[in-house]
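Our preliminary data section would be incomplete without showing what the modeling component actually yields. Below, a chain of 187 amino acids is followed by its predicted structure, encoded as tokens that our downstream tools consume directly.
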Amino acid sequence: MDRVASRLQRVATVLNYATIGVTDIVLVAATVLAFAGIVVRFGFNDSLPWGQELGAYLLVALTFLGMAPGLHDRSHPAIDVAIRRCPRWVQLTASTLISSITAILGGILIMTGVTAIAMLGDESAASFPMPLRYAYVAIPIAGVLFVVHGLTNSLEDIRSLTSLLSGARDSARASAPSPTPSGTAGR
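Predicted structure:
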């Protein structure tokens, strides 16, 4: 299991760096597009008819893809006041459950994203000459990232929990009084 977890961790790390690179590019493109829209609006008293629509598609991609690095790093905000007061094994069990639910959510994103893309077919955007299926391809891609990061985090938590429980069992054995050999108790 350690080999599988180690390989999955490497895949998750590579995907995380790639996702950060793509979201950086999308963020810069959305910023440049918004700035260009302002310049055209106030500088030339005109508008970019496709600018807002493309900006919305970039925002969809940024929203879905931008969640994945937070899952990889476990940096999303959480209300964990009660969990932090529990024993370590309860914390790890809760974290495993949450990461598993994240992976399941990723599967749902994959299914619904692929279904939405199939339903859109060759329908094109209103003012931007692009098939709509390309605008929403970030949803199933984000689902794949959710599955990978959720499974990676779950396996990491299971490994930590197993180590914790086996360490507790070993320390319980070590601290237990050793039985005295028969006939030596009264000497």
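Residues 16 and 69 are 6 Å apart (CA to CA). The two ends are 50 Å apart (CA to CA). Preliminary results of this kind motivate Aim 1 of the renewal.
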